[in-house]
């Protein structure tokens, strides 16, 4: 079965950086889209970024564009989210997710597999 395990969350001061990792297993992900979502207290889960496993095309939510970078190491079956210039508004549980299709890449409806989430807290 597909498993996604996030790591790298923690507490960081505003303006700081953090790198999240998502270890993917149980499937060949050549045709998959891997995404990051986040959910803050009292808010809906929102799209952050995605990357094509093959080809590496990326796309970002406007709120993180220019600050976050999604990448992947295919040999390690790992997806990363480099988070720079962090703001208190970035505080949320961050989830790694896998989309086996080619639709709804920026919407939770497209993602079948989810990790357990990792907490990111940005202090002011």
Summarize this structure as a short list of keywords or feature phrases:
single chain, 124 residues, mainly beta, seven-stranded mixed sheet, four-stranded antiparallel sheet, 11 strands
Q: What does this entry look like structurally?
A:
- 0% of the residues lie in helices and 50% in strands.
- Strand 4 and strand 5 form a beta hairpin.
- It has no helices and eleven strands.
- Strands 2, 4, 5, 6, 9, 10 and 11 form a seven-stranded mixed sheet that branches.
| Rg over C-alpha atoms, rounded to the nearest angstrom | 13 Å
Mean pLDDT, as a whole number?
97
Distance between the termini: 40 Å
Low-confidence regions: none
Strand content: over 45%
H/I helix tally = 0
Along the chain, the helix and strand elements come as EEEEEEEEEEE
Strand tally is 11
Give the oligomeric state of the chains in this entry, treating copies of one chain as homo and distinct chains as hetero.
single chain
Which structural class do the helices and strands define?
Answer: mainly beta
User: Largest sheet, if any?
Assistant: 7 strands, mixed
Helix content: under 10%
Name the shape in a single word.
Answer: globular
Question: How do the strands and helices of this protein lay out in sequence?
Answer:
Elements: E1 3-7, E2 10-13, E3 18-25, E4 33-39, E5 46-52, E6 58-60, E7 68-73, E8 78-83, E9 92-99, E10 113-114, E11 118-123
Parallel strand pairs: 2-11
Antiparallel strand pairs: 1-3, 3-8, 4-5, 4-9, 5-6, 7-8, 9-10, 9-11
Summarize this, please?
This protein has 124 residues and is mostly beta strands.
């Amino acid at each position: 079965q597909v498993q996604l395990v996030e790591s790298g969350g923690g507490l960081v001061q505003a303006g700081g950086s953090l790198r999240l990792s998502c270890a993917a297993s149980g499937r060949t992900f050549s045709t998959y889209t891997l995404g990051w979502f986040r959910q803050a207290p009292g808010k809906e889960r929102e799209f952050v970024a995605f990357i094509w496993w093959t080809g590496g095309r990326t796309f970002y939510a406007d709120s993180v564009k220019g600050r976050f970078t999604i990448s992947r190491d295919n040999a390690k079956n790992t997806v990363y989210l480099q988070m720079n210039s962090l703001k208190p508004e970035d505080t949320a549980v961050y989830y790694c997710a896998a989309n086996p299709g080619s639709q709804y890449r920026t919407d939770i409806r497209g993602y079948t597999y989810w990790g357990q989430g990792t907490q990111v807290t940005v202090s002011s």
